[in-house]
Design a protein that fits this description.
The chain contains 4 helices and no strands. By secondary structure, the protein is mainly alpha-helical. Helix 1 runs antiparallel to helix 2 and helix 2 packs antiparallel against helix 3 (77-88). The longest helix has 40 residues, at 36-75. It is elongated, with a radius of gyration of 19 Å.
Length: 110
């Protein structure tokens, strides 16, 4: 996945949430940011953003595979694998499986 594919995938993934945010913003302007209707619409936006977070992480990891593959040519596989390990130390547990996939992909390169 190159940069353009990454940007398009993230944009497509966020499209429903962005539409919901525009709706919530319009309702906020019309009824006020403290209104019940605005709070309901903004809550829908928040739920959409939380729902796409795991998918966004998967897309990010696919893009990282592309970046690290190119980095292997410049820095070497051992240096890139060390970078991946260093980056993974502070990850939340739910994100580690996708990051392990990145590690395995880079490790399997010739």
């Amino acid at each position: 996945m190159n940069h353009d594919q990454f940007a398009a995938a993230v944009k497509a993934l966020h499209a429903p949430a962005e539409r919901q945010k525009k709706l919530a913003d319009a309702i906020g302007l019309q009824y006020g940011a403290g209104s019940k209707r605005y709070n309901e619409e903004f809550a829908k936006y928040c739920r959409l953003m939380l729902a796409v977070a795991p998918q966004e992480w998967e897309i990010w990891c696919e893009y990282c595979i592309f970046l690290f593959t190119n980095g292997v040519k410049q820095k070497g596989k051992a240096a890139i694998l060390k970078d991946i390990i260093d980056m993974s130390t502070d990850l939340e547990e739910d994100k580690k499986p996708a990051w392990r996939k990145v590690y395995q992909q880079i490790k399997s390169l010739p």
